[in-house]
Each structure stands twice: as C-alpha cells, then as structure tokens.
Amino acid sequence: MGRMLSMTTALVLGLAACSSGEDADEAVEVGPAAGQADAAPAIQAGQYEARTTLLEFEVAGLPEEKVKTLRSAFADELEKPTAFCLTAEQAQKGREEILKKMAESDCTITTLDMTEAGMTGEMNCKGQGGLSGTVKIAGTSAGGTSSMTLETIQSIPNLPGEGARMKWRTDARRVGECSA
C-alpha cells in the first residue's frame, strides 16, 4: 500500500504542479517510457497540500465485518492530509521524471495520455506474495490545483472471489512558496 500511495503522490504532484496560464514555461515532453504520452505543461515549484478521500473499497470473499475493518484502516491512513515542497530542480525535471519513478516500481504503464488539462491512463502492477493488479488513473488540473481519481483492482492469492477493488480521489493545490 505504501508504494501505491507514493505513486499516487507522484501523479498528483504532476497534475497539481502544472501551470495552465499563458505565461507558463514551454511544455515538458513526456519521455518514451510513458508509451502514448502527449506533451504536458510546465510544472510549478512551490508548497502543496493534498487531501485524499476513499470513495469505494471492496474485497470479495471476506466477511463484511472484516471488510469494514479493512476499509476503516485504509481510509484512516489514506485520508491524512499531506503537505510537500516541490523544488525548482524537481519542477524542472517535469513529468518525465515522475514517469521514470513510476517505471522504477513494479508497475508497467499500459496507456497514458497527458494533456494540458490532465491525464488518463492505466498501469499493471505486481507486488510481493503473488499480488497483481491494475490501476486506472483519471485527473484534471488547472493552475496549481488538481483532482485525480485512482481505481485499483487487485487479485489476491488464496482469497476466493474477484479480489479487492479500491477507488480514491486526491485533490491537491499549490499554497505558496516552499518554506526554508
């Protein structure tokens, strides 16, 4: 779960930090590792805040009481507000760097479309103990704000049923310059 949250933060960062103003720097090209990516707007350095909301959580084959306990624990961890500073150096590297970090994980990007307004995509991920899953991504951005919805569908060995499905939305916004 930690790796998935790290990827979520990277994706949200890539959206929230985009400038949609006419005075934006030249667009950053997304590298070939992304597959079907388009050019995306420049990323703005600064201090960001992000809030995540768990929208759906299902685990087939488990008793409902166990699912409620897992849902609550996942939501408690996921919904903690986060703040982060995006340095000028990180912003200069742009979305290509974000995609490289995603590729370093055990995920393969199968589709990705990045535009000035946002992104959509899908990736397949492999985890420890035979876990595997698909992550669907859809997000929008305007100025220093973004909203991204992620849906994961994960197979779980030795568990009857379809596995687990989770969907969450992360909203991020630039709140100013990074504090020293």
Describe this structure in a few short sentences.
InterPro entries: DUF3617. The chain is built from 3 helices and 7 strands; from the N terminus they run H-E-H-E-H-E-E-E-E-E.
Structural account:
- The protein has 180 residues and is α+β, with helices and mostly antiparallel strands.
- It has one domain.
- 26% of the residues lie in helices and 39% in strands.
- It has helices at 2-16, 64-78, 88-104; strands at 46-59, 82-86, 107-114, 118-126, 132-142, 145-155, 164-176.
- The protein has a 7-stranded antiparallel sheet with strand order 2-1-7-6-5-4-3.
- Strand 5 (132-142) and strand 6 form a beta hairpin.
- Helix 1 crosses helix 3 (88-104).
- The protein is globular and about 50 Å long.
- It starts with a helix and ends with a strand.
- Mean pLDDT is 74; it is low at 1-38.
